[in-house]
Amino acid sequence: MTQYHLAQAKPVQSKAPAISVVSESTRLMLHRLAVGIVATVAIACQAEAPSALPTVAVSPTPVVKTATLPSGNATYQSDRFGFHFTYAADQFVAKAETDLEPDVVALEAIQLWTTKHDQEINAGAYEGGTEYPANVSVTVQPASNRLSLQDWVQQSNWFSESRNIKETTIAGQAAIAFQSSGLYEADHVALATPDGAAIVLVTFNKINDDAGNPYQALFEQIVSSLAFDR
Known about the structure:
An eight-stranded mixed beta sheet has the order 2-5-6-7-11-10-9-8, sandwiched between helices. It has helices at 26-33, 35-46, 115-122, 149-155, 214-225, and strands at 10-11, 20-22, 73-78, 83-88, 92-97, 108-114, 136-142, 163-170, 173-181, 185-192, 198-206, 227-228.
């Protein structure tokens, strides 16, 4: 499989902190970018034959709420794919992944952490097999044969037990919101780039439904501020 290299993106606000571009370990990349693959492979190894994908309900009801994060936002700009979103720079750190392993099919990937989690990761608190914290990620993945978003989700090996697919509108265009189960429970939104060649996926991995989880507000802010430049 061809290894994809990510284009470096930069903040567009002059006073905003620079977005770090790092090469994380293979364990971190696979853990954060493809948590559903672990469950999918385990299920496949136990089954005698592939099981049919679950039937999902499709609803036109939007499911994305408006974020209410403090001021002091920074803007993440993807020059390669022509989109941007904002995040609270006083609470979170955004890092673009580079040198992804061949098994991680992503064209661009941004991990967002609380400043506390970022400091712990940099200090080696999660080395030795400890799972990294549930966080928010934004990935760009190739669109497969121009499938509909629903079909893309059902055929992708990134998600295990995808469900509750609902149609919505994000960045002024058709999108879907859905959930999946894997190493973590996860909320996702997915939409195609304007040229239809790639899919932008925003993922919120979570351990529980704690309303005070700062990543919930971050997820909502990214989704509500996501926009294409062309």
